[in-house]
Write a structure and sequence with these properties.
Order of helices and strands: HHHHHHHH
Number of helices: 8
Length: 140
């Protein structure tokens, strides 16, 4: 929370060689920590998801969008959106929708998509079957 609130990820680094080496490891650790909070405390799923999307947005704003895969890797969003008969993971769906609107928007065509989960780069929710699964999940 402190890293996000400090705004240090919102400012692009002036020395890109120094910034690139430790950033991926730090972001993977942050992603893992947030995911551990998400999985261990059900009442913190919303805040952990919101922090994750906020960090992703900050990285995109700072021109560090290429580092997003390191932050998102521990979350396994592709698997979380598949769901079972009971529907998909609603928090994962919220993360994907927020990332598609804040990071993968038409004005950000230069953003590298390599390494990002397919559910973010492709329109996962375009299928009527997928949407019905999530609507049923909300209704129960």
């Amino acid at each position: 929370i402190a890293v996000r609130q400090s705004g240090c990820l919102c400012r692009p680094s002036k020395d890109s060689k120094v910034a690139k080496s430790p950033v991926a490891g730090m972001l993977k650790d942050m992603g893992t920590g947030l995911h551990e909070v998400y999985t261990s405390r059900s009442y913190l799923r919303g805040p952990a998801s919101e922090l994750l999307t906020g960090l992703c947005h900050d990285l995109c704003e700072a021109g560090l969008a290429a580092e997003l895969p390191a932050l998102l890797q521990p979350w396994a969003l592709d698997e979380a959106t598949r769901g079972g008969e009971d529907g998909g993971n609603m928090f994962a769906a919220g993360i994907i929708w927020k990332l598609r609107t804040s990071c993968i928007q038409p004005s950000n065509v230069a953003m590298p998509r390599k390494g990002l989960p397919d559910c973010i780069t492709k329109d996962t929710f375009a299928s009527q079957q997928v949407l019905e699964k999530y609507v049923r999940s909300l209704a129960t």
